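Have a close read of this protein, sequence plus structure tokens, and explain what the tokens say about the fold. Thanks in advance:
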Amino acid sequence: MDRETLQQFKDTLHRYVRERLVPLEEEVAATDRIPDPVRREMAEMGLFGMTVPEEFGGLGVNVSEEAELVMELCWASPVFRSVVGTNNGIGSQGIVMDGTEEQKRRWLPRIASGELIASFALTEPSAGSDAASLKTRAARHGDRFVVNGTKRFITNAPQAGVFTLMARTDPGNPGAGGISAFIVDAGSKGISIGKPDRKMGQRGAHTADVIFEDVEVPAANLIGGKEGQGFKTAMKVLDRGRLHLAAVCCGTAERIMDMALRYAAERQQFGQPIAEFQLVQAMLADCQTEAYAAQSMLRDAARRFDEGENISKEAACCKYYASEMVGRLADRAVQIHGGAGYMAEYPVERFYRDVRLFRIYEGTSQIQQLVIARAMLKELKAKG
């Protein structure tokens, strides 16, 4: 996407977010549902296929462009991003990166158009941070695999039309090498979806268990046509996904900062706006400084990803810092609002709950720390 086209798209998205999505935030939180017309509008704008290559009906944006668009989108409640997020990230990128040409032609156009919601089925009741220990089994029988197992906390599962499924094809290999990746039609016989989870925040974005009972999956749906490559695919997908989530955090942080700044400028105490008090100014300054640092990290890592560098360490740094940063900003924003910040009539209360998830999913902060430290030690060893 050339610079002029990107700027035009950003301008359009800027207006749409503020004029259409922000006014709907309270309704979505109250009903736990994004209106169908909004889903259709987002599909018409191409938001479900931002990262899908143009040849398969998407916009084909690179990671730097994706980051800018996601930050723009996340001025609104992060639940709106969530509905398109899996199509652009973990739900589709396994097919984009490692799928066969036939798999790409069959599935990506429907994902890019929003006809299908793509969902990533990795986490299990006993396999979260230790994803390589997953137990869902895919046993081969001729030209098909039979899948049995349960996946947990699967984003967009209730609306999913297709799952990127991680399952163990080699029971003799208990580690990552025994895992394969599959494209699974959500309408397949034997798939059932649990009740939508009741969550702390992000009402309107749904997660649920997905149960596979003797589900038959054609061998042609094995991503890349190779067994034992699933965990490698998942890790490649998560590198880009971590940059995407860092962009979500940065965009949400800008909205939270705006709310805190406006409230501080308007709220009067002791005969003047509280923004005139130095301790409030210190909190605002800390918010701005940390948000700027996170954006700078993200843009640098995204550029390097686009240039072909291995940025697994930097992606973990971005996700770790940005998710912790937006949590601190939300906490300061509530503090600046004082008692009002604890009341549901002010959006800052909802954002405070919404952003708590960012430090947990797609790798907790502690997992990111391990990824970063292990990469540092590996680099040191390579230096000799």
